[in-house]
Amino acid sequence: MNGADALITTLADNGVTACFANPGTSEMQFVAALDREPRMRSILCLFEGVATGAADGYGRMTGTPACTLLHLGPGYANGAANLHNARRAFTPTVNVIGDHAVDHRQYDAPLNSDIAALARPNSLWVKSADSADAVGPLAAEAVAASFGAPGGAACLILPADSAWNLTNARGPVIEPPRPRAPDPAAVAAAAQAIKAAAKPVLLLGGGACGEAGIAAAGRLAAVGVRVLTDTFTARQARGEGRFRPDKLPYFGEAALKDLDGVDLMALCATVEPVAFFAYPDRPSVLVPEGCATLTLSDRGTDAAAALDALADALGAPAAGAVEPYAPPPAPAGKLDAWAMGAAIARHMPAGAIISDDAVTAGLPIFTQTRNARGHDWLSLTGGAIGQGIPLAIGAAVACPDRKVLALTGDGAGMYTVQGLWTIAREKLDVTVVVFANHAYRILGIEMGRTGGGEPGPAASRLLDLSDPRIDWVAVAGGLGLPAERVETAEAFDAAMARAMSEPGPHFIEAAMR
Amino acid sequence: MNGADALITTLADNGVTACFANPGTSEMQFVAALDREPRMRSILCLFEGVATGAADGYGRMTGTPACTLLHLGPGYANGAANLHNARRAFTPTVNVIGDHAVDHRQYDAPLNSDIAALARPNSLWVKSADSADAVGPLAAEAVAASFGAPGGAACLILPADSAWNLTNARGPVIEPPRPRAPDPAAVAAAAQAIKAAAKPVLLLGGGACGEAGIAAAGRLAAVGVRVLTDTFTARQARGEGRFRPDKLPYFGEAALKDLDGVDLMALCATVEPVAFFAYPDRPSVLVPEGCATLTLSDRGTDAAAALDALADALGAPAAGAVEPYAPPPAPAGKLDAWAMGAAIARHMPAGAIISDDAVTAGLPIFTQTRNARGHDWLSLTGGAIGQGIPLAIGAAVACPDRKVLALTGDGAGMYTVQGLWTIAREKLDVTVVVFANHAYRILGIEMGRTGGGEPGPAASRLLDLSDPRIDWVAVAGGLGLPAERVETAEAFDAAMARAMSEPGPHFIEAAMR
Q1: With a threshold of 0.90, does the pTM exceed it?
Q2: CATH number reported for the structural domain that contains residue B411 in this entry
Q3: Within 13 A of A172's CA, how many CA atoms are on the CB side?
Q4: A226 is in which domain, residue-wise?
Q5: Nearest beta carbon to residue A278 from set B88, B161, B381
Q6: Per-residue pLDDT, A172
Q7: C-alpha separations of A160 from A106, A344, B290 in Å
Q8: Do residues B342 and B471 both lie within one domain?
Q9: Interface of A with B in 260-289 (CB under 8 A)
């Protein structure tokens, strides 16, 4: 076998069986080796930001890494923004970055760059396999490194000659690390502090929002502890049969108002909350004055176990209250995010996965779906728009039996619009909804908050997407998706009913008013 | 004024009057300040790779920097691949990267990242303006740094509070550096070596391929010196009235065959040529054995002056032979790159600018246009596909009175397809031609050369774009461009005739067989 075989076989041996790829010349051996390893499913993405976002979505749903195949420094850079989001989601990913042959690097050919330097800011682990014999062992090391804990990006640089040279060195099968058990002293301290506090809250990070963590948090709510989650969680179990925590508001002043009087904040799988952006004369840290904070468990600890231990210590019942299935009534009239949220809540089946890159439309839909069928909600964790469509691809590859909805603003959707083609090619069970408000609407809000004042003609033009209006049905159709435009709440409800009952790709342009 | 005003005014004072932007919350003050500085033209791009590629195209045409406006680390990363290409083109650019307020950085909010570390590999200069008073002076320093010489990317990190705080510190007006005068000793040594050599060649880099450099190189050809250019030049004056040098072949073995017997290679604004990629058992360095090399002038030197001095030393006439206007006959039948090249050569007007991201279709069109009207040809300098459409945007903004053609493969075109919208919005005089062969065709060739063998089903699927076929007319139309598909040479010729005679945007999908 050659180094490329050693790589792919070692990855597959370690359970890495999905590869989101955009290869180039330096990766041809990797591509050729895919025909010799049937366990690896390779999925072509027409831009690397789609590949990395898909790996994030896959990892969020499975807890294990997918791999990406990227073409030297520029290929990595194209994927870096969604790896930034994945870093904030603590998602394990293994990124194979092709490079020039080792001896060729010294000549600084046009595609040469400092790949390791580019990759380091978003990575837990970056190494280069500078011989064929090194490839297999480093592949196993990369998988191990990606788990963290918490998880993150491992980047394996693969010089072309390390891929084409022969080797016998298959990498070992590693044991995926288990999260640390909770620290009994921290649990006891948290229990004592909560009992002593007048108005305690428990803040959950994404790692505590899986099915077990949410259930344990529900037990704590049953004994009167207010439970909140971070504003953006990597994956959150919600809907029918799940406990519903509150969400920390996005804008800092709203968060502080919500936390008014709180004298204790217990943190589980997160850190002290801070404002997403700074604004003139507004605080950065979202902990009220006089409020103590303590850490029940960090991001590397088994959050559900820590929450259960805390619930036990507080004498909580075995199960807390959960949400019933109680969708909103059929929406009518004006097509806004509230109406769309109602339609989504009415029609999405149990086990649906929502990838949220909907920006200003996200919160109304999040609110409307709280009594929908049980589902997982994946948020934009790092603030780099263009995550929604790619993440949905990865989630659909990871969970082929579940409906996936990608909710995206029009500005965000354009960032990684190439992903629509991959959804069509792979016939993924993904319904993409684009909220076509023809603006970067969030920036219209932020302009005032940052003190920019009323935008004049030049500024307005940078926030506006209406000239020309994007015909999303044409774009999505041109990329191979069955697409329709709806302009009323009733039409959206009907389109959602169809999309949720028919398997395979769907695209809905929601023409918002 | 605030820091944002100081920035934009200082940039405009220094001749930086085009801003290719995709702003976010942290850049709102910059956006607001655009309304107070009418000299700055701001152009919205729906993805940062479009913005940076446009700045590259602008800089190649004017020799001076445009600026980009990018949103923190992910915004920079999205633009990094085209800044990689710009680095290889030695194009001056000033990239304003918004960041969190200085005091807010410590809290590691979701969009926080190590911007300087991300930017450094592709930049000549990276600094952060950590107070409003620092902004203006650093803006002037960034402009100065971008000139090099040779030119490159200057990245100015702009924390939000440095933009919103007040200041009186406008930056100075800098004197753009002039290229160094040629070294008389190097000129004399080159003249002597060329006279003594049996088979000398002169190799020109992109910096020697402007109108004056090409004219001076033609004088050298007139006294028997064979003149070649690098395979990919940032900008080359060609066609009617210009001297036509040969181009160093892309594949290394073809280059070495072409250079067989050459005993002296004189370098002007370039370095010893190397293969674009390494291949098993093929050389990296493209200098024949026994061939001496010497540097007439480096990339920071006035190449035209060096070439003229060398021509004088060799007793060359005041002007060499130039190409006549002699376009190929009207093409007929099969629509291939040769036919398209003929049509382009027949119809493009004097002063046209060609942005070439056409991959396998590029060389036939380059060959066919050698006797077209005088034009400038901009190559993909760094190998990161997705440059063609953005570069054309920048060239069109820089040169509103010239026709611009963006030639792009379908794989390359998908990378920065968002640029089509900006062409439509700004009503730029750009004709985009997509070569729709529904494949990464170059990789089909490279698979064999890298020893990958005959691709099986898995490998083939990663090189193929035909399932589903992209309907480019739908995509381009959806993004606001008048678009048509042509399937024969005659139809392409007719479409090109129309596009070249009517100002404004055009889009042609060339359905290749």
Answers
A1: yes
A2: 3.40.50.970
A3: 5
A4: 184-313
A5: B161
A6: 98
A7: 14, 47, 28
A8: yes
A9: 274-278, 280, 284-285
